[in-house]
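pinging the channel bc i need a second pair of eyes. not urgent but kinda urgent?? the chain im working w is below, pasted from the shared doc
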Amino acid sequence: MAAAAAAAAVGGSQSPQAELPAPGLALDKAATAAHLKAALSRPDNRAGAEELQALLERVLSAERPLAAAADGEEAAAAGGGGGPGAAEEEALEWCKCLLAGGGGYDEFCAAVRAYDPAALCGLVWTANFVAYRCRTCGISPCMSLCAECFHQGDHTGHDFNMFRSQAGGACDCGDSNVMRESGFCKRHQIKSSSNIPCVPKDLLMMSEFVLPRFIFCLIQYLREGYNEPAADVPSEKDLNKVLQLLEPQISFLEDLTKMGGAMRSVLTQVLTNQQNYKDLTSGLGENACAKKSHEKYLIALKSSGLTYPEDKLVYGIQEPSAGTSTLAVQGFAGATGTLGQLDSSDEEDQDGSQGLGKRKRVKLSSNTKDQSIMDVLKHKSFLEELLFWTIKYEFPQKMVTFLLNMLPDQEYKVAFTKTFVQHYAFIMKTLKKSHESDTMSNRIVHISVQLFSNEELARQVTEECQLLDIMVTVLLYMMESCLIKSELQDEENSLHVVVNCGEALLKNNTYWPLVSDFINILSHQSVAKRFLEDHGLLVTWMNFVSFFQGMNLNKRELNEHVEFESQTYYAAFAAELEACAQPMWGLLSHCKVRETQEYTRNVVRYCLEALQDWFDAINFVDEPAPNQVTFHLPLHRYYAMFLSKAVKCQELDLDSVLPDQEMLMKLMIHPLQIQASLAEIHSNMWVRNGLQIKGQAMTYVQSHFCNSMIDPDIYLLQVCASRLDPDYFISSVFERFKVVDLLTMASQHQNTVLDAEHERSMLEGALTFLVILLSLRLHLGMSDDEILRAEMVAQLCMNDRTHSSLLDLIPENPNPKSGIIPGSYSFESVLSAVADFKAPVFEPGGSMQQGMYTPKAEVWDQEFDPVMVILRTVYRRDVQSAMDRYTAFLKQSGKFPGNPWPPYKKRTPLHPSYKGLMRLLHCKTLHIVLFTLLYKILMDHQNLSEHVLCMVLYLIELGLENSAEEESDEEASVCGPERCHDSWFPGSNLVSNMRHFINYVRVRVPETAPEVKRDSPASTSSDSLGSLQSSRRPKVLQRENSGTAQVFSLVAERRKKFQEIINRSSSEANQVVRPKTSNKWSAPGSAPQLTTAILEIKESILSLLIKLHHKLSGKQNSYYPPWLDDIEILIQPEIPKYSHGDGITAVERILLKAALQSRMNKRIIEEICRKVTPPVPPKKVTAAEKKTLDKEERRQKARERQQKLLAEFASRQKSFMETAMDVDSPENDIPMEITAAEPQISEAVYDCVICGQSGPSSEDRPTGLVVLLQASSVLGQCRDNIEPKKLPITEEEQIYPWDTCAAVHDVRLSLLQRYFKDSSCLLAVSIGWEGGVYVQTCGHTLHIDCHKSYMESLRNDQVLQGFSVDKGEFTCPLCRQFANSVLPCYPGSNVENNLWQRPSNKNIQDLIKEVEELQGRPGAFPSETNLSKEMESVMKDIKNTTQKKYRDYSKTPGSPDNDFLFMYSVARTNLELELIHRGGNLCSGGASTAGKRSCLNQLFHVLALHMRLYSIDSEYNPWRKLTQLVEEVNSQLGNEEQQPEVPILYHDVTSLLLIQILMMPQPLRKDHFTCIVKVLFTLLYTQALVALSVKCSEEDRSAWKHTGALKKNTCDAEKSHEVLLSFVISELSKGKLYHEEGTQECAMVSPIAWSPESMEKYLQDFCLPFLRITSLLQHHLFGEDLPSCQEEEEFSVLSSCLGLLPTFYQTEHPFISASCLDWPVPAFDIISQWCFEINGFTERHAEQGKALLIQESRWKLPHLLQLPENYNTIFQYYHRKTCSVCTKVPKDPAVCLVCGTFVCLKGLCCKQQSYCECVLHSQNCGAGTGIFLLINASVIIIIRGHRFCLWGSVYLDAHGEEDRDLRRGKPLYICKERYKVLEQQWISHTFDHINKRWGPHYNGL
C-alpha cells in the first residue's frame, strides 16, 4: 500500500469528508483545522464535534500496518518502504495541526507556555544524569535538584553533594513538601498563580477534543502489539519492536507535558475522565479490529489478580476454573473464578513436591482486609489502562518519563498515585517474571520515590486505598514463591519454612523496589503510626519476618572440604538488612517518646508470639543442635531493639515486656550459638566449609550490618544474663564454647568435643565474649553522642582514617530515611574533639597520601577501649594494629617503655534496669573458673596464653569495680571448714571470695597424668573439694557417700538449674538428668580411663595474684604493698602510674583495689607478702615433655638466627636502596664507577648485576648500561611566557599550539627548505623537539651476553608483569627499574682520558688544522666485533623508539642526511632535557642531576661511531666557512639554477657544535673541544649582533654605526662589541635586510632606549643557552664538575670554565662578553664574508631573510595547563560537551592536560584503524605519552606507549581526599602540590619508574 495514499484509503468510505485531497497537504490540514475550530467555537457545536470525530476516526484508525508489523516481518515488507512509519507521521501531523487550530504548531506551543504557572521544576531525568542533593535544604532525604536549579539557588556552606542518578529522578525545586523554600532557585521562588493570566478558552479547546482520541489510539496500539508470551520464550524482542514504532507518539505526548501547567491540566482531565474512557472503549461493537484488540486486552488482564497459580501444583487440584478470590487461597476447589482456565505463563516453577506452607498461607490470607487486591484489575480511565500497559511492557523509559512529567499537576498526582497503588500487586508479578529485573526495578523506583516521599500524599493513599495492607500482602506473596523447609534444629519434624537464598528473587535483589517503597512510607510518622496500631498488620509482618529467621543455615563440615562454596550468604545478609532491619529502624524512629509506649508493647507482644511459634515449629527444647549455625535471627533482633528503645526513650519498665524465665533461656540460646561459632570460625574449626564462612563472620560484624546484627544479639544476651541465674548463664557460656573440660586443676585432661589445638583460642574466645558482654554499654545507658564518640575512637585507634572511610565505618542508623544523617553536626564536632587532621603528604616513592585523621594524644591516654576495638574489628589484624599504635604512643610519650597490655577503661554507669548483669561477676561458677585459670597459668599448664591471663585479670577487675557494697568486715571472719561443705567458696561476693583459701581439690584425671603417682595427703578431712570436670556421663552426678569430696560439674549444675525450672521440682532434679545429648558427644569408652586424684593447692585468688606478680617480674618477693610506704594511696586511689602498663601493673592495680575494698583483704595481702614465698615448685618433667621442651629451645634458637639474618639482610637492602633508588635526592648521590676516574686505574671497571663479576668492557665481551629509551615531546611544549596556559572552560577559550617551541622549529625548517639546498638545511637545525629520543639509566651495568640470557628467561616466564618482553622491555635485575635497551660501554682507559685533558700550548691556528684533518678522516666502521654489533643494534633501538614522522624531515626520503640529522639531534634532546631538569640554568652546579645515572658519555660514543660513517664533503663542511676566508666569492652566484647553501649566519650554533664534536674520532682531546667552542662562539656572537641590529630603530642603528666606526682602529677592536656592531650594521646595510621598515614595521620596533648595559645584557642572554649546553657537554665528556654561581654571574663563570676567557683576565671592571672572543681569522673579513651571504639572499626575499635570522632564545620551562581552583568548573563544561566527530555527549569524556584537547576515552566514534582516540592523541601530542583528566571520574590516567596506569587525582575535597568516580560528589579543590608532582614526573620522564600499576591498553582507550 503506497504510503501517501494510506491516510485516505483506510476507511475512506465512512468518512463524510471524502472531498479532502488524498495526500493531505499541509495547507489543507491547516485550513481544515481552522474550519473545525471555528465550527466548534459556535454555541451549537454538535455538527463540528461530529465532523471532528469522523476525521479523527479516520486519521487515527488503528487498522494500519502497525499491528501487522508487530505480528510479523512480512506485513511490514508489504507496507512498502516506509509503510507504517509514514502513516504514523501523517497522523501526528494531523494532530499537531488540529491542536493548533490552523495556526503554526510552534506558535501554539509558545502561546500555551505563556500560561505556565511554573511553581515547580519537575524536570524528569533518567539513569546516569548528574543531579544534586542538599541535606541542609531537604525535608525528605530523597530530595534532589537538577544542576540548573542547584546552581541558581544559594547553597553556600550547605551539606550538599553531586550524584549520578541510579534509577532516574525528578527535580524537587519549588515543592515545599520535600524541601525548604530557602533552597528554591530564582525561577521557582515566585509564588504561583499570582500574576499568571487565565487561560483563554479557545486556546486549548481543540486539545480537549483531539487528545482523548489520540490517547485511545495509543492504547489500541499497545493492546494490538501485546501477545501473551509463550510458555518459555521471552517476548522482549516483540515488545521492543512495538515500542520503537510508538516512539514518535509517546514523544509527542511528552512534548505536550513540557508546555507547562495549562496543557498538563487538559491532559489530566483527559487521562482521568471516566466517561471518555467508557464511551471510547465500549462503543466498539462493529469494528472487527477494535474487537480483536479488546480481546487481547482481556487476556492480558487475566493474570493481574493476586491469585495463586502455584496452588494448583501444591495441592494437586487441576480444576478448570481456579478461582481468584481469597477462597482459592484456602485451598478448596469450590470457589467460582471469573476467568476460566488460568493463563499458562503464570505457572511459576514451584517444586510441587513440597506440601509446605499450607498452615502459613491460610493464616496470612485470612487477615487481608482488602478483597480487591486479590481480584483481577478493573480499569475505569485512560490513566489506569496506560499504567497497566506501561507495566505489561516492563516500564519503557519514554512512558515512564511521560507519566512522571505530568506530576507537577496536583490533581494528576493524586489520581496517579492511587492508580499506582491499585496496580501494585500486578507490578510485583511482572517484576518477578521479568528478565531485565534490574532495569525494571530502577524504573519502578523512579516512579514510586516521587509518589511516596511526599508525606501528605502517602497518608492520603494509606487512608483511602489501604496502602499498607497492599504493600505487606504483596511482599508476603512475593516471598512465598521461594520458601523451603528449614533444616535448623530438628530436620525431620521441622514445620518452619524459610526463604531460599539461592533463588533469583533473593540473589538478584529483585525484591528491593517493593521493600524500598515500604521503608519510604514508614519514614512518615502518620503512616508508621497506622502500621503500629494495626494488630492484624503487625501479625502479618512478623509472619513475613519469620521467613528470614534461620535462613542460610551453615552446617560444619567435619570430614572433607566442601566441593562447592555457595555464595548465597551475600543474598541472605542483604535480605535481612533490607527487608527486615531497615523497616525495623524506620518503625523505631517513631518510638522515641513516652506517648508511643503502646506501639512498643504491640510489637514486642507479636514478636514474642512469632518467636514462640518459631521455637515450636523447629521443635526446640533446650539444647541447640551441634555444628550448625545461622547468622539470621531477625525476630530476636526486632525484640531486642524494641526492648532497648522502650527502656532508653519510653521509660517503660523492662520487666513488664519480658517473658518468663523459660522463654528467656530459649531466647539466649541462638544468639549465644552465634558468638561461640564466631570463635570457632576464627579458630579455623570451620575451614572445611571454605572461605565463605569467614565471609559471613566478617559481614556479621561489619560496619553496615553490626548495629542490626551483632549489637542487638549482644544486647539480648545482656538482658537474658541480667534476668537469669548467673551460675546457669556462665556455665552455658563455657559449655557453648566447648571448653568446660579444660577448666580443671589437673595438668592433663580429656576434651571430648574439641581438638587440643583449638582449645586455647576457644578459651580466649569465651573469656573475651564475657568481657564484651560485661563491659559493653551500647544499649545499657550510653547516650547517642557517647556511642558515636566510642565508635569513632575505636575506628581511629585501629588505623588513621580518611573522613569518608570514617563516615563509612561508623555504624549509623541504617534506615536512610530516619533523618539521622552521616556527616551531621555531631559527627563533625566529635571528630574534631577526638582526632587531629594530617594533611595529605607525599612520599619520595611518589605514592600519594590522602588527608587522614589520627587520634589525639589524650584519646590514647584516656579513651582507648580495647573491648570496643575487638567488637568492631572485621579483621583480627586490626586489633593487633591498634595495640601496636597504642604501644608506640606510650613509648613516644614516655609513659611506658615495654609491651603494654590493653588498658582497663572505666565504663559508663549501667541503666538501673540492667543492674542484674553484674551478678555474673559475683557468682561462684565464675570465681571457680577464674581461680582455676590463675592456678593453671601459674603452674604453666599447656594451652594458656597471655591473652587468657589478661582477660582473667580484666574480669577480676570488673568484679572489684562493680562489687556489691554490703560486705561488712565483722561478718567476714575467716570462715572455718564447717561453713561450706559442698562447694568451693563461702559466698558469692568476689571481694570476700578472693581471700578464701582452697586447700585440696579432687580432680578426675586420665591414668597417665603425673598427679596419679602422688600419694593422697594424710588428712582427707579437706575443707572443700571439687573439680571442674566433665566427662558427660550421668554418673558424674552421683554424690560421694563420704561427703568429704564432691565432683563439681558445670554441665551438671546447668542441667540441674534447667531441670528445676522445667520440672519445678528440686527433689528429683538431683537424681534425674536427661541423658538426651550425651551420646552425640562421645561414644562411651572412647576416652581413656579416668581416675580420681586429690591435689594439694593451699592458695587463694589473692595469693595466686601475688605469685603471678613474682612470676611475671621474674624476681622473688617482687611485690611489696605500696600502701605500707605511702598511706595516701588508699585515700586517693586513681593513680596515673597504674593506668598504662603490662601484666605486672595490672596485678598491682587489682591488689590495690582489693585492699581498698576491704581491710581484711589488705591484711591478708600483707601477710602473704611477709611469708617468704617458696619458689614455684618445679614441674616434674617427663621424657616426652623434655623432648618437646628441647624442641622449643631449638626452635627459639633457630628463630633468633633467622631474625639476625633477616635484620642483616634488611640493613643491606636499605643501604642499597639509599644508593640506588633515591629518585628525589640527587645531592647526596655517590657517583658510580662510570664517572669516578682515578688516574692509577688503567681501565674503567664495571660490575655486572647478573653474574656479579667485575671487569672492564672489552671488544668481545662488552658491558652495557641498563637504559630506558623513550620518545618525548616535552621540549616541544615550551612556550615563551612564564605563565602556563589555562585549561579552556568556556567555548571562547581555545588553545592554539602555534606558539610552542616545536611549532616554531617546524616552521623554521620548512622555510629553510623552501629556499635552500635540502642537505644543507638538514645541517642547519636540530630536530627532536617533538618525538625526540630521551635516554635514561638507573646506572647499573651488565654483560650484554648475560642480558640476552636474562631476556630469554623472562620470555619463558609465563607470569608477565606489566611489560612486554617481545618489545625488548625488562626491569633492571638489581633495582627493578623499567628499561628497554642496553647501551654498550666503550672500552677505553681512564688514564688516557687524563692525558687528553692536559692543556697543550699549541696556538689556535694549529688546533683548527688538526680538527679539520681529524674530521676529514673517514670513520671506517670497526671490524665485526661483538661490541660493534651491539652498537649497531642499540642505534636501531634508538631509531625505532620514535615514530617515522619524527625522524624523516628530508625532501628525499631515506637520504643519509636524515640519519645524520637524527643522530646529532638525539644528543641535543638529551642535553636540553637535562638542562630543563636542572631548572633551565646551571647556577646550582655540582655533579649532574643524576651523577651516576647519566649515560651521555656512552651515548656519545655510539652516536659518534655512526656519524663518522657519513663524512661530509670537505667543501660543504661548515668548519671551513667558520675558519677560512673564501676567495672566489663570485663563483657562488654564478650557478643560479641550483638552490644555494644555507648562509652560515642562519645556522643553529648548538647544532654545529654537536656536528663538529661527533665528527671527531673519540675519545676527544680537551684542547680540540675548546678550539671548536671558541670558533663557534665567534659565530654565535655575530648572530647576536645581527639580531640586536634588527631589533633597534633606524636612528639607533645610524648612531651606533657612527660611534663604532670611530673606535675601529683601536688595539682590541676585535673584542669590542661596539666596533663589531657598527661593522655588522654597515655590512648588512648593503643588502635589503633593514629595508621596508619605514612603512608597516615601525610598530614592532621596541621603543627602548638601548644603553650599553642593556646591550651587554642582551648579548649575554643570547649566548647563554649555547654556553650552558656546551658546559654540560664538557662535564659529561671530560668529567669536570660544574661550578655553582649566582644567576647574574652565570655567563662569566661558564665562559671561564669553557676556556673562552683568557686566564689572566681581571675581574675588577664590569665584565664584557666580547672579551671572550678569539677570532681564528681577522674578524672584519670573516664577518663581511658571512654578511655577504645574507645580503645575497635578502636581495630576493627581504621578508624571509629577516624571519630566518636566529633570534635570542626565549623558551621558558615547559608546564602542564593551569587548572581552575574548583573541579565543578571543569565538570560542568566538559561533561555535557559533545564529541566533535559524532556530536553526541561521550560516555567517558577526557581532556589532555598538555594541550587541552577534548577526547573520548574508549569512544568508538573516534576510533581510527583500531586506535581509540586517547591512544592516538598520546602519540600525536606526546610521542606516546599522554596525560588525561577523566572528567567523570576526576582521576588522571597516563598512557605511556602500549601501557597505561591510573595516576590518581589532583583534586581533593575539603578533607584532603580523592573522590574517584565522583561517588561522594563533594566539592573538590585543586591540590597544587599533587599537580606539581605530576608535572615533575612528566618533565623528568619518570612515570615508568614511580607508578607501579601498569597494564596494557590494547589501543582501546
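so The chain has 74 helices and 28 strands. and The longest helix spans residues 1183-1220. — does that match what u expected or am i reading it wrong
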